[in-house]
Design a protein that fits this description.
Distance between the termini: 35 Å
Helix content: 25-40%
Shape: globular
Order of helices and strands: EEHHHEEEHEHEEH
Structural class: alpha+beta
Number of helices: 6
Strand order of the largest sheet: 1-2-3-4-5
């Protein structure tokens, strides 16, 4: 099976590696000032294409990367999330970015839960982090819903190294214990 046949499903979402048809909604998402505020800012189409291609390339080079998040009910692309560790990154991250028109629906924690399970089951990671801008209250809420906590301050590699980021996360053992508690509830 090819990595591009991979598909994770949650109650409301399909997570799969990005496909060519995902570029249009990706470009619209990254052109929205509010959606792009905490992920490097607005990108014009040529730069958005390069970023999109880098994510697809990460799947080829590393065997993982951001998933495209598809809403089952509509078939709509609603964002990107999943395991991420480009060169110079401060750790093994599961990150999320949801298009603004889909904020507040719980897609980020729902998808990130499935992506974190997949990362721990398939990537031999000992820790999952989330790099979060200090003023990004929404992402801190998502991280807390996942059972993560503030670990330390850190820096992203250039060109995103203008200011420090908060690094939230948890160990594999903490994740497994949290998932066990959730299944009992």
């Amino acid at each position: 099976m090819s990595i591009f046949d991979l598909q994770l499903e949650t109650e409301r979402l399909i997570l799969r590696p990005p496909q060519a048809q995902d570029f249009e909604p990706w470009a619209a998402f990254i052109a929205d000032e509010e959606s792009a505020r905490h992920i490097g800012g607005v990108q014009p189409r040529p730069i958005a294409w390069r970023a999109f291609a880098a994510v697809v390339g990460g799947w080829h080079l590393q065997g993982f990367g951001f998933f495209s998040v598809i809403e089952k009910a509509t078939g709509q692309w609603v964002g990107r999330l999943g395991p991420w560790q480009p060169e110079g990154w401060p750790g093994t991250e599961v990150g999320w970015s949801i298009a603004r028109e889909h904020w507040g629906k719980g897609f980020a924690p729902e998808g990130a839960r499935a992506a974190t399970d997949w990362a721990f089951d398939n990537l031999d990671w000992d820790e999952v982090i989330h790099t979060i801008a200090e003023d990004n209250a929404n992402s801190k809420t998502v991280a807390a819903k996942l059972g993560s906590s503030f670990l330390r301050m850190g820096w992203l590699p250039a060109p995103h190294d203008a200011k420090p980021v908060e690094i939230w996360g948890q160990s594999r053992e903490e994740w497994m214990a949290n998932r066990k508690k959730e299944s009992r509830a």
